[in-house]
Every structure is written in structure tokens, then in C-alpha cells.
Amino acid sequence: MTVSGTGFHSLTTEVHDHHPTVEGSIPDWLSGTLIRNGPARFEVGDCRVNHWFDGLAMLRRYAFDDGLLRYSNRFLRTDAYAEAMDGRLTGQFGTDTRGWRRLLEIIPSLGVPDPTDNANVHVAHIDGEYVALTEAPRRVAFDPETLETRGRFRFHDDLPEHITAAHFVDDPHRDELVGFATQFGRRPQYHLYRLPAGCRTREVIASIDANGPAYIHDCSVTANHVIIVESPLVLSVFQALNPFAEGAIDMLDWQPERDTRVLVVNRNTGDVVADPTFEPAFTFHHVNAYVDGGTIVLDLVAFPNGDIVDTMSLSELDGNGFPDVPDAHLMRYRINPDSNTVNRTRLYDGAMEMPRVARSVVGRRHRYVYGQVTDRTGANGLVKVDCKTGTAKEWWKRSVYIEEPVPVQHPDADTEDEGVVLATALNTQRERTELMIFDAATLEVQARAVLPHAEPFGFHGRFFQNV
């Protein structure tokens, strides 16, 4: 995996409805808004945060209408933001300056640090609200037009959660979001749940006893299943009791003597239909899943171990060279519920991350996977993997760092790849960020919009057609 230190600078400038210069032509049919989330400020007073995950959350808005583009960016005005403006860093993933005072908070809460509301990972549309998400159980509502912070978003239920999913699976076929939460205690559990459209009461699909429990970042669905992958990257409550711990990152403990377990749960009954195990591996991001006859197919991006989390500390990312991080690979897991076994194959020879499929095929058989190519020197590229033919198309250019690609289908699309792929890209040579629009079939560049500043690397985003 290669990264650029330029992508980890602080951005403090905010703009509203800026009309960027566009090279090329934005399709007239592209109507809606891409909202991305990510860290943007890494310094508090004289202190620089320890980890990429700890930068203060900034929303970025790219609104398309009749071939035109408007751009806005704004920090979330959260408790974490206010404390940072006062020079305090508390409760972040890898940065916490409370020392012994943390014991007063984490012992009553089963070892879990006081949750931050620095919701810098993802966004979702829940019951009419637009919500910024992180893995701590505090969510923040915002205005999708102005990006102004509206305050804390709360579900209308009492589902226990100490760590929660920042990735919801948005299933358009069942018109619901699917997520999960991890509960600590004498009997740690994963709570898998659905959230029907127009509702903010989560319905529990299943509560499963956890081994570890593990740090789980993402999940997948098929038409009839929810799937999580429990790696041996364990969340150790005892390690969090150290008063000199830097944050939640110190709860993570790679235990390679454990196996990786794939949990396949029936969405309708809550029954565990398969839980095969295999040698240690770690995954941040799933691609998609579907049923093929009697087999459950799960595509995801897998690392050989959990070292990637530590390697994203800013002490590594700010260095002159690139961190020595094992590459992640696009893998296909074919799970046989009858024999409770899993067969794994690699779908793409290169290394990749931030995988996405078209929304219309979520939970259904997909052919194409778009992702960020991560094994180029001095660049990140874009790749489109054809899972049917085993071939791939790539686009990359030296000094250009492509972020998460977001496929958007044409409203009258007949095929999965009829439309565009939206991706922000940091050009380190020109010290600017561009929003790039690729043809989803060919990866040819249709347009690029030059933003008014260089954005720090963000995480995830969604395209909302009605904003």
C-alpha cells in the first residue's frame, strides 16, 4: 500500500457552493449529491494527533445539476471539535491525553473509553436525517445542503452497543439499512440489526456470542443473509485499562493463534446457517455478497494480518518513505452451509482497497468491482475488476492519489456498468484535489473539477440522488 504525506495535512478553509473549474463535460443526466466524510484537522494547539483516524471530521459536498457542479466543505461542530478548539484531545481512536483520569470513565463502562462524537468515517440517510457516522456509538445529524451540524442523532431503541458499525449496508431491494454493534461484558456479543426506511428503531436480526470480541469494520448482505467476518484482531478490554494508553487503538491485540470465523446469519430467522473458520486474516471492507445455488459468495478485501491499523499512525504516514504495509487483495469466499466450509480464491492480481459495487446489485450477483489500486509507486489508481472474465481495467497517473470510487448508474441503465464512477484525487505535484468523473464501462476520464484547495485524504461517502 502506498500513500502520500501530502494527504495528511490539515485543511482549515471552509467554502460554500463554490463553482469549480471543470475540464471536460459532466453528463447532463448526473443529478444528485456526493457527500464524503473524513478527517481534516490533525493539530490541536502544539499537539499533532497520533493516528489518521483521529483528525477532526469534515464533510465534503459535491452537488450535480444539469451538467454543473457546486462544492462545499465544513467541519462537524461536535463536542470533540469544541474540545479540540480549547486545546484538549479526548477519546479519539489513537489519541487521548487524559492519562489516569481515563480510569474514572472506563472502569464503570466495562473498559470502553468514553465514546467520541468525532464522526469522521461515513454518512447515511436515516428517517429523513443525514447522519455522520463513526465506530463509536455517537452519531451526528447534519444539513445536506449547508453541511451545518444539527446535533446528536439518536435511535429510538435501547440496543446495547460499545462499538458500532460505521458502514451500513444500504439494501435497495428490501429498502432497509443493515448494521451491527459489538457489546462488551462477561458474555460479549455481536448484535446484527435492520433499520427499515423511514424508521429509527433498529430491529435485531440476531445476537451472536463473540470470540474475542473482534474488531469488525464492515458487513455484507445477500437477499437472505447477513455476513460478518470475525478476525483474530481482538478488542481487549484489559489493555484499555492502561492509564497511559493512547486511545481505543490500544484495545487491539492481534492473536494469530485464533482462526478467522465467517458468520452467515439468516436475515429472516436470525439462525446462524454457517460459521466456517480458516487461518488468520483481517479485513476492513467488504465488497458484496450473493447466493449462487446452494453456495454463499462473499467478496471482500483481505490483509494477511492486523498490522495495517498501526501502520496508519501519523508517525508512519508523515515519514519520508512509505510505510511497509502488507497489501490487501480482492478475495472471493465461497461458503458451503451444508459442509460448513469456505473456499477462497483471489480475483485480482494487484493490491486494492476501498471497494464498491453499483447500488443496484447490493446483495445480488455482481460482475464488476471498482476499487483503489494501492500497489503503485508514487500514486494510487482506479481499477475495475470483471469477476466473470477475471480481467481488469486500470487507470493511474504518477503523483495522483485516487480515493474511494463511487459508481453511479445511469437512471435508464441496462447494464451494471452503464454510468460513471466518481472519485476524488489528490494531485501531489499540483497540490490540489480534483473530483474526477470516469466512464464506468471504460474508465476513460469524462471530466475533472479542480477544487479550491487540496483536501486531506478522506474515508467514505455516498451518492444521494434526491439532495
TrEMBL record:
Record's superkingdom?
Archaea
Query: Which biological process annotations from GO are given for this protein?
Result: carotene catabolic process
Q: Specify one Pfam family.
A: RPE65
Q: Which cofactor does it need?
A: Fe(2+)
Q: Which GO terms describe its molecular function?
A: carotenoid dioxygenase activity; metal ion binding
Give the UniProt keywords, A-Z: Dioxygenase, Iron, Metal-binding, Oxidoreductase
Q: Which family does it belong to?
A: Belongs to the carotenoid oxygenase family.
Report what the protein is called.
Carotenoid cleavage dioxygenase
Organism of origin is: Natrinema hispanicum
Q: Lineage in the entry?
A: Archaea, Methanobacteriati, Methanobacteriota, Stenosarchaea group, Halobacteria
